[in-house]
Specification:
Number of strands: 7
Strand order of the largest sheet: 5-6-7
Shape: elongated
Helix content: 10-25%
Strand content: 15-25%
Structural class: alpha+beta
Length: 142
């Protein structure tokens, strides 16, 4: 089999020319997000595979891709949740954390309020909703 040569692009790539200490540096900008710091067309192509122009949002917490720490699968399909929400989903969560009008995070089992999502996560590992009783005297902990 004979390999076909790649066809050259019909139009030249859009470039940004920067002068730095008398040298001319060519940069390739992304047309979707406006980033202009790609030194080669290959670097720009790699970026464009994942660039969404800033439109992606986590379906649970609404954070942007730049804040997400990766895109994870969720109940709505691949790349629908951010890293923290994806971890909660893998751990068995069925939806986003409940938040009060004052911005406090609420435990889904006992309704206790916390200042951060991490604090709720730490609490949830041991929360039994107040059902625990001492086996000897039947008192409640806490």
């Amino acid at each position: 089999p004979v390999a076909k040569a790649a066809r050259p692009s019909k139009r030249p790539p859009v470039t940004v020319t920067v002068r730095l200490h008398g040298a001319t540096i060519v940069r390739y900008p992304c047309a979707l997000c406006g980033r202009q710091d790609f030194e080669s067309q290959g670097a720009l192509s790699g970026h464009r595979r994942f660039c969404d122009g800033g439109k992606w949002r986590c379906t649970w917490c609404q954070c942007r891709a730049s804040e997400a720490g990766g895109k994870n699968p969720g109940p709505d399909g691949p790349s629908t949740l951010c890293g923290p929400c994806g971890g909660r989903f893998r751990g068995g969560a069925t939806g986003p954390l409940k938040v009060t009008a004052t911005g406090k995070f609420v435990c889904e089992v006992c309704a206790r309020e916390f200042d951060s999502a991490g604090a709720v996560g730490g609490h949830m590992r041991f929360c039994d909703g107040g059902a625990w009783r001492c086996g000897w005297c039947k008192c409640k902990a806490g």
